[in-house]
Inverse folding.
C-alpha cells in the first residue's frame, strides 16, 4: 500500500482544524462512477467546497491511498448534525468507484455491457487497499477491528444512528455480485494487523507452517474413528512433510481430509481407502469415483499441490502430480474460508457447499485443542477457580489466537475440566459449562484455585 499525503488545505474543513479522539474507522465509497482519486482531490480542495471532507481517498485504478486530512482532524464524511455524530470520532475513507457503472437512482446502478469484470477488478483493488489502510490505522490508534462498532461502513453507521442515510459501500459489492461483507472486511483487517498465517480471529491462510502436531492429529483421528486403520495413522506425518515441501499448512490439508473422508471412515464418500485419494479429488458429482493415486504419499502430495493452486501463485517445488492443478485459477482462495465457493469473493474455490472452509477450520480447532500427551485427559482432575474480574474473555480455544466467544465469565466460581498451553497466557482452562463443544476457554492467569 502506498500513501500519498495530499491534504485538502483549501477545504474549509481542513481550515477549521478541529481535532477528534479517534474511536473508529468508517468505510465509504464515493457513490459516483469516478475511479480516480485525483478528480476528488481537485474538486474538493477549494474554499467554496463546503459540502464534505474526508481523511482519504483510495484510487480504484492503482489502489493508492491519498491522505486528505491529518487522521485526527474532524472530517465531514457521514452527514451533519445529530445524524452525523460519527464525524466526532471516526476517520472516514472513501473508495473510488469504477467508471463503467452508471447510477440510475439512489444506490442502484447499471454496469456497462461486457464491463462486469472490469468493474469488479476496480472494486477489489480498492477493497484490498482499504484492508491494508485500516489495518495500519488500527495499529496506529490501538483499535480492534473486530470489537463492536470500531470498523463500520457508512451504511452501518446510519443503522446505529450516527451517520446520514447512505448504503455505501455494501451497495457496490452486492450489485456486482461480490461476496464481500463488512464482517469479512473486519476479519481481514484483523488478519492484516497480525500479519499472521493463522488465527487472531481473522481469516486463516492456507499457506504457512502447520500449527497442530502429528500427535494431535493422530489423537483426533482415534477419538473420532476408534477403528481407524494403522496404515492411516502411519501416513499422518506425510501431511506435515508434504505441506512443508510446498509451503502449505499440512494440518489444514489433514483437516480437509478428515472432512472429505468422514475421518477416514469413508462412509458416505465416493472414494475408497485404496484409491489414496483423501480429498475427494475428481469427485464432481455423486457416484463418480474420483482420481486414484499409487501411494498415500502421492495422494497427499496431489492434495497439497491442489491447495497450493488455490492459495498461491507460486511455482510448485515438486513435480506436479495433481491431475487437476491446471484447472484452478491460481491464487483465488488465499484463505481457508475462501475454499468454499459460497464464501469466496470471486465465487471460485474447492467446493460448492456452504461453509466448506468453516467446516475445515472447525475440525482444525478441535485438533489443536487436543493435548499432545494421550491419556493426559483421563488423569486430569477438574478443579474450581475464582475469577475476580468481571470481563474475563471466554475464547473458543486455548489461546488469544482463538476467537472470542463474545461472552465473559463475570465474577464468580467456575470449574476447570481441562488445561492446555496456548499463546497469551501461562496456561488455559476449559470451563465445565463448555464441555460438549470444548469451546469455552479462559486464561488461568486471571483465575485462582479455590
Ligand atoms: Zn459514505
Amino acid at each position: 500500500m502506498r500513501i500519498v499525503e495530499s491534504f485538502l488545505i483549501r477545504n474549509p474543513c481542513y481550515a477549521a482544524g478541529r481535532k477528534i479522539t479517534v474511536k473508529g474507522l468508517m468505510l465509504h465509497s464515493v457513490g459516483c462512477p469516478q475511479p480516480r482519486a485525483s478528480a476528488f482531490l481537485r474538486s474538493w480542495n477549494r474554499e467554496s467546497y463546503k459540502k464534505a471532507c474526508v481523511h482519504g481517498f483510495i484510487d480504484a485504478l492503482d489502489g493508492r491511498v491519498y491522505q486528505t486530512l491529518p487522521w485526527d482532524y474532524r472530517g465531514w464524511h457521514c452527514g451533519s448534525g445529530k445524524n452525523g455524530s460519527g464525524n466526532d470520532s471516526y476517520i472516514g475513507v472513501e473508495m473510488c468507484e469504477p467508471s463503467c457503472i452508471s447510477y440510475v437512482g439512489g444506490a442502484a446502478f447499471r454496469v456497462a455491457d461486457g464491463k462486469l469484470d472490469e468493474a469488479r477488478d476496480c472494486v477489489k483493488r480498492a477493497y484490498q487497499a482499504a484492508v491494508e489502510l485500516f489495518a495500519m490505522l488500527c495499529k496506529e490508534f490501538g483499535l480492534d477491528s473486530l470489537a463492536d462498532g470500531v470498523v463500520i461502513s457508512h451504511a452501518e453507521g446510519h443503522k446505529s444512528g450516527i451517520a446520514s442515510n447512505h448504503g455505501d459501500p455494501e451497495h457496490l459489492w452486492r450489485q456486482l455480485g461480490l461476496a464481500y461483507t463488512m464482517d469479512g472486511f473486519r476479519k481481514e483487517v484483523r488478519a492484516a494487523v497480525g500479519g499472521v498465517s493463522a488465527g487472531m480471529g481473522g481469516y486463516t491462510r492456507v499457506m504457512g507452517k502447520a500449527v497442530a502436531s502429528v500427535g494431535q492429529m493422530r489423537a483426533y483421528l482415534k477419538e473420532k474413528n476408534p477403528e481407524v486403520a494403522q496404515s492411516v495413522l502411519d501416513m499422518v506425518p506425510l501431511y506435515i512433510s508434504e505441506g512443508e515441501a510446498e509451503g502449505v499448512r499440512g494440518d489444514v490439508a489433514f483437516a480437509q481430509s478428515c472432512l472429505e473422508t468422514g475421518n477416514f471412515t469413508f462412509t458416505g464418500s465416493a472414494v475408497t481407502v485404496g484409491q489414496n485419494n483423501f480429498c475427494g479429488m475428481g469427485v464432481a458429482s455423486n457416484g463418480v469415483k474420483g482420481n486414484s493415486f499409487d501411494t498415500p504419499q502421492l495422494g497427499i502430495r496431489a492434495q497439497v499441490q491442489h491447495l497450493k493452486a488455490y492459495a498461491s501463485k507460486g511455482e510448485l517445488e515438486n513435480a506436479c502430480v495433481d491431475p487437476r492443478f491446471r484447472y484452478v485459477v491460481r491464487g483465488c482462495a488465499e484463505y481457508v474460508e475462501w475454499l468454499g465457493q459460497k464464501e469466496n469473493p470471486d465465487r471460485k474455490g474447492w467446493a460448492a457447499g456452504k461453509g466448506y472452509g468453516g467446516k475445515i477450520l472447525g475440525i482444525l480447532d478441535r485438533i489443536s485443542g487436543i493435548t499432545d500427551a494421550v491419556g493426559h485427559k483421563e488423569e486430569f482432575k477438574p478443579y474450581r477457580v475464582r475469577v475476580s474480574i468481571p470481563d474475563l474473555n471466554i475464547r473458543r480455544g486455548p489461546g488469544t489466537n482463538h476467537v472470542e466467544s463474545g461472552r465473559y465469565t463475570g465474577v464468580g466460581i467456575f470449574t476447570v475440566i481441562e488445561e492446555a498451553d496456548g499463546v497469551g497466557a501461562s496456561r488455559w482452562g476449559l470451563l465445565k459449562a463448555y464441555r460438549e463443544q470444548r469451546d469455552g476457554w479462559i486464561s488461568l492467569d486471571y483465575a485462582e484455585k479455590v
